[in-house]
Amino acid sequence: MSAHPQLRRRAEAAASRFPPLLARAETLANTVLLGEHGRQRSGLGDDFWQYRPVQAGDSYRMIDWRKSAKTGAQYVRQKEWQIAQSITLWVDNAASMSYHSQKDIVPKSDRAQLLALAVAILMIRAGERVGLAGTTLPPRRGDGQIWRLSQALLETEETRDYGAPEARAMLPNTRALFISDFFGHFEDVEQALYKAADRGVRGVILQVLDPAEEAFPFSGRAIFESMKAQISHETRKANELQEAYLQRLQDRKAALQKLARITGWQYTCHLTDAPVQSALLWLYNAMERGR
Predict the structure, then answer these.
(1) 160 versus 228: which is more confidently predicted?
(2) pLDDT tens, 201-210?
(3) Ranges for the DUF58 domain (predicted)?
(4) Which domain holds residue 52?
(5) Pairwise CA distance, residues 195 & 44, whole Å
(6) Which residues, listed in sequence order, are joined to residue 53 by a DSSP beta bridge?
(7) Which of 5, 65, 130, 178 sits at a 20 to 30 Å CA gap from 262?
């Protein structure tokens, strides 16, 4: 007898979802490829590219001691894939991302996973390496990596209400994409972005929101509860909260924009009832600008 039937059911549910997710992501990626010319780039592979000065976080094993001895300074012998061809994705899987206000509007998690996988497909087809933040799925190339990303995006389950960005194990001078509603503690976002920026990582912040979270169309008696019921607030006059809520939302967006500007990243907000093709095209161009 299995000791973990609930875990097995979750795994089976995730497995049944990732082929449709992959098919949708490939179709979406093709809409961008049809309108964009392939990038011309020489030297794909792990060939030597250039030297750069040692940075905080580099290990001693990365130092080229022959070059360093000639110049009197410490240099790292950097390969091409370490410079321009590694992209790290962090896709928030916290409970708040499962919210959707109407049946005909997809959950935020669905849109986030679709966009992340479509971006990965575009970048991998261009010869780049894509992986997930943390240490479980490092950046790699090839169709096999696309399948692994599809599985990984769906099989994890977060017990917290709100997620915190992950910036571990990012290679220096690479790129990253963080996708979330960013409703959690802002200090966690700051810490992750500063940590990434210290390693020369540039990237994109994509805030995904449900249209109800953008407009706050509530009135009368209402109970507002987080997805894991860890936070709850009851009111008889929800409409009186609208102004304060919208101000806090704008403050959070402004803080994300400022953080992106300080760290050399880019920021945009996407609503789940907006065209997904437009969001992917913006992301694709933003990731290109970050090279």
Answers:
(1) 160
(2) 999 999 999 9
(3) 50-249
(4) 48-79
(5) 28
(6) 75
(7) 130
Query: Quick one: 139 and 282 in the same domain?
Result: yes
| Residue that the structure tokens 């992917």 belong to | 280
Judgement on whether residues 18 and 59 belong to the same structural domain of the protein: no
Q: Looking at the structure, do residues 132 and 222 belong to the same domain, yes or no?
A: yes
Here the tokens at position 100 are: 């959707």
249-283: b (≥16 Cβ within 10 Å) or e: beebbeebbebbeebebbbbbbbbbeebeebbebb
177: which DSSP letter?
A: E
pTM listed for this prediction: 0.78
Domain of 185, CATH number, reads 3.40.50
* Structure tokens given for 37: 């010319």
- Burial of residue 203 (CB within 10 Å: 0-12, 13-18, 19+) is buried
**Domain match, 64 and 188 both:** no
- pLDDT per position as a tens digit, 43-90: 344 444 455 676 655 556 667 667 667 777 776 665 544 444 789 999
Model confidence pLDDT, tens digit, residues 93-111: 999 999 999 999 999 999 9
